[in-house]
Each structure stands twice: as structure tokens, then as C-alpha cells.
Amino acid sequence: MNDICRLLQIRYPIIQGGMGNISNAKLASAVSEAGGLGTVGVGTMPPDEVEEIIVETKRRTNRPFAVNIPLQVTPYLEEMVSLVLKHRVPVVSLSAGNPAPWIPRFAAQGIKVIVVTASVKQAKKAEAAGADIVVAEGYEAAGINSSLELTTMTLIPQIASAVNIPVVAAGGIGDGRGLLAALALGAQGVQLGTRLIATKDAPFHEAYKQLITNAKDNETVIVGRTVGRVRRIMRTPYAEKLLEYEKQGMPPEQFQEYTSEDRHRRGALHGDFHEGFVNAGQIAGLIDDVPTVAELFEQMMAEAKQQLGKLRVILGE
What we know:
- By secondary structure, the protein is of the alpha/beta class.
- It has 14 helices and 11 strands.
- The protein has helices at residues 3-8, 25-33, 47-60, 77-86, 103-107, 120-129, 152-162, 176-184, 194-197, 206-214, 237-247, 252-258, 261-270, 293-314, and strands spanning 14-16, 38-41, 65-70, 91-95, 112-117, 133-137, 143-144, 167-170, 189-192, 220-223, 231-234.
- The strands form 2 sheets. An 8-stranded parallel sheet has the order 1-9-8-6-5-4-3-2.
- The two termini are 24 Å apart.
């Protein structure tokens, strides 16, 4: 058993990424039931809504799951910390901000802390602050990304060499080959987002899933560079409007409004691609089916083992 599975008490070294305001108990519990670590992302949701999801997740599974708190995104930071402590959620994932002030409160209650990072400097600071695990996320990933725009292929080995705590790779991973590649680069597990959208257990609009399964390699776009808020989304009519607004000099406040979680929900939950957007990572171009989460994990593990066998032949072992 590797360190990720041991620390988190899961069967497979696979973690669900936080999904903001489209997070839900159905998918989070399905991931945990399938042997990974399901995650409830709080996004900008109010405390009562998040608490409902946590309670339902606990009802659906008795296996470990996490709550992701984007520190500089949620307007209810103190309340979200209190919810994790109140419900004794076994794992917390901290992103989008400085985790150092908050880690001791979780550690004191025996809660494992994952910190999402986008550079070697951030990973080293997270380790020094007491994080148990760091997620190293390349900008191939869906949704909000670091303006550093470091790729997964280059980021993982650098962070794995710089810290002594386990590393999870995120961004551009969606099958067993990606899992094996992440392990070869020094990670001990992977975090999935886009790949989990296209599963039977994900309660998102079918048009969203179809966009992903029909996507070619170049059908995600980066918006927000001009305002310093990098986000990767699927190319849709709404995405094209955002890109045009940026060319015209859209101010940060307007960008924030046009990429709000309300707009996110319009796309992901209602399939409205003219007035709402959907997050998607570059891995979308590789996805062409919609299995259950359990089927996906079994496929990934089998493919990783099969690919490892091929590599042994190539390496002459």
C-alpha cells in the first residue's frame, strides 16, 4: 500500500478534485465507494447548502471523503472550517490561498490536510506548514489555474524532488496510462476532475458529458489571462464571447461576474452553453465513454498494470 492509500485509508490512489458549486453528494460518495477519495467542493455556496451535501455524503458512504475549501474564493471561510470540524470530515483539501493559518486547527482534530499547489515554492511552504499531502496541479487542468501555467509533466518531478511528503498529480490525467506516468514522475497518486464529469454517477447535464466525449485535443481554451485569473473551460459559444470581451479590454470585475458560479451552474447543470460555461481540462480530448466511477477505476488500474508490462519489455527487463 502506498503512502496516499495508507494516509487516506483508500483502496486506490485516486482523488476527486473540488468542483466548486456543482459539487454534490452523489458523485463524491460514488468515488469513495469505488475506492478513491470523493470530494465535496464548497465553492461559493452558503454554509447550509454545503452542510446538506456533507450530511448526504455521510449517509451514502461510510468511507473517507474530503471537503475542498478554496480559501480566497469562499465568502464563508470560517464557517466552512467549522463545518469540517463539526462533522469530523476525515480529510480537508485547501486551495486558492495560504493554508498555513488553518492547518493546525485541522491537525489538532486528526484531520488529514491536502494542499493544492502550482509551484515548487508553494509545495515547500505547504510542507513546512504541516500539510500531509500536496497536490501538484499543472495548467492542463480544468477550471481555475495558476497564472504560472506550469505543466504537469514538468511540475510533478520537481515537486516530488523538493518535498518529503506524498505528492498527488493533477492536470491532464484520465486513464491508466496517465496514472502510470504520474507515478513514474514521482507522484504517489492522481487527482481527477474532467474524467469524473463523464461518468454515469455524475449528476450533470448530458450535454456537458457529450461535449467532453466528443471533444478533440484542442477544444479547451484559457480565459482570464488579461485579468490575471486563468481558467480553462470548454470551447462553447459562451467561451467565445468571453474571449471577445477580453479582446475589448474587459475589467476584472466584469470577468468575475461572467465567470461566477451561477454561470458555471448554468452550463454544467442546465446545459446552457450560450449563457453559461463548463470547466474542462485538456484530457477531454482523450475521453470517449461514460462508465460508472467503479468501472473507470477498475479500467485505470488494469490499464496501468498492462502499460507497465509493456514498458518492462521496452526497457529490456
